[in-house]
Amino acid sequence: MKLYPLKFNPILKERLWGGTKLKTVLDKPIESDITGESWELSAVKGDVSIVANGDLKGSSLQDLITTYSDDLLGKSVVDRFGYEFPILIKFIDAKQDLSIQLHPNDELAKERHDSFGKTEMWYVMDANPEANLIVGFNRDVTKKVYQENLKNDTLLELLNYERVKEGDTFFINTGKIHAIGAGVLLAEIQQTSDVTYRVFDFNRRDRNGNLRELHTELALDAMDYSKKDDFKVDYNTQLDTINTMVDCPYFKTNSLHLTKSLNQDLGNRDSFTILMCVGGSAEIANEHGTASIKKGETILVPANSKTLNINTSNAKLLEVTI
Predict the structure, then answer these.
(1) Fewest 10 Å CB contacts: which of 6, 251, 263, 320?
(2) Does this model's pTM top 0.85?
(3) Which residue among the candidates 198, 207, 212, 269 is catalytic per the annotation?
(4) Nearest CA to 282 among 319, 320, 252, 236?
(5) Closest of 181, 8, 183 to residue 98, by C-alpha
(6) How far apart are CA 291 and CA 299, in angstroms?
(7) SS3 for 98?
(8) In whole angstroms, what is the distance from residue 151 CA to residue 153 CA?
(9) Whether residue 269 lies in the annotated active site
(10) Residue 312 burial (C-beta neighbours within 10 Å; 0-12, 13-18, 19+)
């Protein structure tokens, strides 16, 4: 089988805080008015992506990894992660504030959950006026101060709020307390992990009247209590070229705002390439096939592709590799 650019069926998730922007803005096939997440590319057990296009339509991402391994992922990726897909790609619509949360690092996640940690990044695609993200503390705190504020229901007084607009990008390393605020639609790129420590949920109840589980004790040793300004990503926005956004041990993300076609030589790239379309549309081709992409869609370009041709007159893309 000659591996071509692969599209996958979205895995749609209802969430207490979800809304309708995944349908109205990104044209996802949803009927619920509380759909919060569209998992675009996932090998998380129980939520494995299924190919939507071409001769491999109906195949699961995990089956493709087992069958094509190095050709799909890249030898260096297989050497590092084996047959586990290391990235989870989502679009997230927050009609309400998400819970205040954080994620453990690799060591804690392995010890406690036999999982990867969860380093992630956000790219804001749409934001209501006055919409915010919570990222980190607004001052240095201690574990004791944090616990006292949590107990007294005054945790929000310690948190740093960031007003956001389209194009704003944030890097959320493990241990950093954070939350997506109401009115924000964003693209999320993260390590393959579903481990989240929820510490405050605004005392909300689910449709059955129950409070959601909190992970108060687990979070204490996973949290970074210091105030840091390392989260806002400052990146170039030059047209028709590749602009570096994030380069961390778990993924590398570039921004491409194209007004004309772009051809890349991938001969020396020993990794798959993920393209998330955050604006406009394009045709994505390698030497074995072509797939269309529009705002709100994602394509996986196999690692053995020698060329990557993006044919467009207007497209905003996030390019993700390992």
Answers:
(1) 263
(2) yes
(3) 198
(4) 319
(5) 181
(6) 8
(7) coil
(8) 6
(9) no
(10) buried
Q: Measure Cα distances from 207 to 20, 30, 32, 215 in Å.
A: 18, 19, 14, 21
**Residue 145, burial from CB neighbour count under 10 angstroms (0-12, 13-18, 19+):** middle
DSSP character for 78? H
Cα–Cα distance, 102 to 118 (Å, whole number): 9
- Contacts of residue 45, Cβ cutoff 8 Å, sequence gap at least 6: none
Residues in the chain, pLDDT under 70 = none
Task: For residue 15, give the 3-state DSSP assignment.
Answer: strand
Pair of tokens at residue 207 = 């449709």
Residues 6+ apart with CB under 8 A from 282: 258, 292, 293, 310, 311, 312, 315, 317
- Output the pLDDT for position 208: 86
Strand ranges of the sheet holding 178-180, from the earlier edge strand across to the other edge: 159-163, 132-137, 178-180, 100-102, 197-200
Tell me which residue has tokens 């229901």: 153
CB atoms inside a 10 Å sphere around CB 200:
19
Tokens, residue 204: 């909300």
